[in-house]
Backbone:
């Protein structure tokens, strides 16, 4: 049990699930390794690196994985599982991945090479950057070309499968593109109802705001 996670309200079983995939530094801050970089969390700060690798937790035997949960931070992974609890009958079939603060083409290539045929949950937040990240990643893992351009009057143009789709920022989503294009990406988007991210929801529940 880590005191930071306990103070945030992360349940014991969730902490135990992730405990072998994190460590504490000399200052007692939580650290999550992304091969050559680290995500750092302490009271008063949260640093998420820009990397081309993943932080991973859960079942690392990829042949046994049924569902991959891809997030923008390791803390978001923890908050997601703490929110949903163990609603899954077989948590051993789950793989959690954090791509860090920015999506890289190597993330997409790795997912295509290692997790073909798996179910995906994307957990990137409700802001525009999070929704754009979900669009890019969904297109990438399904082998579809997508070009995104910003137009005048805050419009966003999506060139997808030979067609142009124009969205206002507030109406842009993977589901909206699916409806207009007729293409099904076969991924699930997870977002909390009243917060931008599950981690923000977790902090709010603990009475923390940084």
Residues:
């Amino acid at each position: 049990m880590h005191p930071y996670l306990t103070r945030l309200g992360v349940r014991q079983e969730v902490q135990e699930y992730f405990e072998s995939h994190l460590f504490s530094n000399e200052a007692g801050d939580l650290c999550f390794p992304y091969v050559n970089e680290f995500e750092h969390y302490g009271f008063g700060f949260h640093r998420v690196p820009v990397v081309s690798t993943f932080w991973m937790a859960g079942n690392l035997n990829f042949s046994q994985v049924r569902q991959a949960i891809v997030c923008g931070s390791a803390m978001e992974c923890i908050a997601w599982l703490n929110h949903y609890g163990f609603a899954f009958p077989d948590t051993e079939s789950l793989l959690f991945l954090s791509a860090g603060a920015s999506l890289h083409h190597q993330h997409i290539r790795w997912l295509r090479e290692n997790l073909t045929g798996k179910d995906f949950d994307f957990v990137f937040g409700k802001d525009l950057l999070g929704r754009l990240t979900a669009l890019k990643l969904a297109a990438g893992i399904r082998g579809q070309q997508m070009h995104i351009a910003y137009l005048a009057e805050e419009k966003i143009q999506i060139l997808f499968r030979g067609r142009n789709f124009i969205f206002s920022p507030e109406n842009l989503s993977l589901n909206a593109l699916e409806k207009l294009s007729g293409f099904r990406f076969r991924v699930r988007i997870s977002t909390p109802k009243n917060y931008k991210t599950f981690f923000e929801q977790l902090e709010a529940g603990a009475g923390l705001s940084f």
About this structure: The first strand starts at residue 23 and ends at 24.
